Amino acid sequence: MSGIPKSRHYAHVDGELLCDGVSLTEIAEEFGTPTYVYSGASIDRAYAAIDEALSFAPHLIAYAVKANSNLAVLARLRDLGAGADIVSGGELARCLEVGIGGDRIVFSGVGKRDEEIEAALRASIRSIHVESAQEIEAIEAIAERLGVEAPISLRINPDVDPKTHPYIATGLHHTKFGLEIGVAEELLPRILRSKRLVLEGVTCHIGSQIGDVSSLREAVGVTASLAKRCRDAGAPIRTLDAGGGWPIPYGDESDEFPEAQTFGDAIRDGLADGRADDMGLEIIVEPGRALVGESGTLLSRVIFVKDQPYRPDAVAGASHESQESGDKRFVIVDASMSELIRPALYDAHHGISPVETPPPQAARSLADVVGPVCESGDWLAKDRLLPPLERGDLIAIMSAGAYGMVMASNYNSRPRPAEVLIDNGEYRAIRERETFAELMRSEERG
Ligand code: LLP
After folding, report:
1. Is 208 in the pocket of ligand 1 (CB under 6 A)?
2. Is the CB of 168 under 6 A from ligand 1?
3. Distance between CA atoms of 42 and 19, rounded to whole angstroms?
4. Which of 184, 218, 279, 431 is close enough to 419 for a disulfide, judged by CB 3.0 to 4.6 Å?
5. 394 and 331 in one domain?
6. Cα dihedral across residues 102, 63, 407, 44: positive or negative
7. What are the angstrom distances between the C-alpha of 81 and each of 19, 101, 269, 383?
8. Predicted local distance difference test score (pLDDT) of residue 19
9. Do 273 and 313 have their domain in common?
10. Structural domain harbouring 250
11. 213 C-alpha vs ligand 1 centroid, how far in Å?
């Protein structure tokens, strides 16, 4: 089927789509739809690949919790040995809830509130990644009040283009993220003089779904040379954090997809470029999507199919010849932008796989897969060659394990979906579907 990434964990067998041998039809029947389904084995495999790719140095895989913060997912990653990259007090609370130790947590983000900094210091986290001069002042004042030392790292904006969607590029000069190298160096003497601040690392994160591995190498090179200058100036630098951004295939790539090792090698080479390879640094990485993205699908049921005859007068700027098919087929499903906003927000591609295996000779035609939400931006796939789909059929929206459920909203008063984890041939709900009562729980009746 077109536009679907190859998967070791999702496969059509005996007429239906299975996840690690488990029937998605059965899951839909038991839990209803829309439902997020995750392959535990896929998370394990992704973790092992990244771990292996970094075997050249001591390292910590600090999972970017924002990608999927379900407690059961966090607990699984904890068991694998992961730490966490957090961006809020809420994410810190989740990590502490599942027992990820403070010494394995780093705290990123341009706008940390005082109470979040205080909670992080009380939890004795590994490092706070500072992104502005004012943040340094705030951390120092809070550490002083608590009578503790605050371990910090300088987050650099290396001004490197990750060749990705502009909304998820974070290491370019014009973005809000990180400190320019010159500014970071100016802050160094002030940090070194502080009795409360301990500059233990340098860090960068150039963006998500990095499209060109050489940009990661370049960014690490710039960050590594700063690490060296900081150490030479007397800072007790012990870590270099290369951020996240390791990509996953979504099924619309034209080129062969690089292995995790390619990204590990880029970090190793970047360290050497920055002449920091003999500093004995521990490497931290913050992958989110690469750990959980491919594990997940959003399972959804077709509500209606609507064929819209082509009307040239109604399509601005289009000619009949420019259309591959005259008519438009809308497959209206029970998932929407409320449950998976990535297509609407980033024009993101997600593979669409019918759960019942279509006969090989089934005619495919172009279709838009859309949700019930009252917005024309509410689409999940556009102009996709799909086999016939009928009311009641199930589809799996692939590669939805990262930035899926965490970005779900209640728009149109839609309860957020259930989440199901598949583990060793068995499955269990790791989050119940939200109820209407929960939707209204904290509101005044009037
Ligand atoms: N570290 C930092 C400091 C980050 O800001 C991020 C992501 C990551 C690590 C993890 O990036 P990953 O390895 O998952 O690419 N909602 C967007 C992605 C936004 C990512 C924001 N920061 C999407 O759906 O594509």
Report:
1. yes
2. yes
3. 10
4. 431
5. yes
6. negative
7. 24, 11, 25, 42
8. 98
9. no
10. 41-288
11. 16
Compute the residue count for the chain: 446
> Do residues 345 and 406 share a domain?
yes
Task: Read off the pTM.
Answer: 0.95
Q: Provide mean pLDDT across the span 53-58.
A: 98
Tell me the CA–centroid distance for residue 293 and ligand 1, in Å: 11
What is the whole-number distance in angstroms between the Cα of residue 400 and the centre of ligand 1?
14
Q: In CATH, what number is assigned to the domain containing residue 238?
A: 3.20.20.10
**Counted domains in the chain:** 2
Q: Which atom of ligand 1 is nearest to the CA of 210?
A: 15
Tens digit of pLDDT for each residue in 98-156? Answer: 999 999 999 999 999 999 999 999 999 999 999 999 999 999 999 999 999 999 999 99
Residues 131 and 143 in one domain: yes
pLDDT score, position 167: 73
323: pLDDT strictly greater than 70? no
Is the beta carbon of 207 within 6 A of some atom in ligand 1? no
Q: Is the CB of 245 inside a 6 Å radius of any atom of ligand 1?
A: yes
pLDDT at 312 (0 to 100): 64
Contact 37, 422 (CB under 8 A): yes
Residue to mutate (ligand 1; options 164, 202, 286, 399; most atoms within 8 A of CB): 286
In this structure, the answer to whether residues 27 and 68 fall within a common structural domain is no
49 φ/ψ angles, rounded to the nearest 5 degrees: -65, -40
Confidence at residue 375, expressed as pLDDT on a 0 to 100 scale: 96
Task: Indicate whether 165 and 151 sit together in one domain.
Answer: yes
Contact, 150 vs 130, CB < 8 A? no
Residue 27: predicted pLDDT: 98
Confidence class for position 326, pLDDT limits 50, 70, 90: low
DSSP for residue 357: P
Measured from the CB, is residue 131 less than 6 Å from ligand 1?
no
Residues 194 and 83 in one domain: yes
* Cβ proximity of 433 and 416 under 8 Å: yes
Nearest CA to ligand 1 atom 7: 208
361 and 346 fall within a common domain: yes
Instruction: Fill in the amino acid letter for 212.
Output: D
Mean of pLDDT over the chain? 94
Of 244, 260, 288, which closes a domain? 288
Q: Which residues are catalytic?
A: 374
Does 20 map to a domain?
yes
Instruction: Write out the two tokens for 103.
Output: 């010494």
